[in-house]
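Q: Could you predict the 3D structure of Negative regulator of flagellin synthesis?
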Amino acid sequence: MSVNTVKGSGVITNPNAVAAPEAAKAEKAAPKSSAQAIYAKVKDAPSVKDAANVQISPRAKELSMAKKIAEDTPDVREDKVAQFKEQINKGEYKPDSGKIADGILREAIRDEIAKDPSIILG
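A: Sure. Here are the predicted structure tokens for Negative regulator of flagellin synthesis:
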């Protein structure tokens, strides 16, 4: 459609012809809807094929193996308990107080670091 005006009167018979450029400016200035914003982010995301190609780092494999070993290790080592019971009953158990103190301190330090890792990370 074309713009039809009556000469000299300034009357526009097709108001959309003038409004179209203004509408385009308003559309550009208007904020995108949430759906448009999400689409803009998602359109550059990797394809399903690319997302299916996952590489597991050597560190992740080590951690997985360590977790498996920890899960398979019993909480109480009955063999050690029996050994210490036997030594205590015979009067042969002589604990090393230095090793005990070191163990207590090591565990306390680990607990504090677990609460606030910035202690060692600065």
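Q: Anything worth pointing out?
A: The mean pLDDT is 77.
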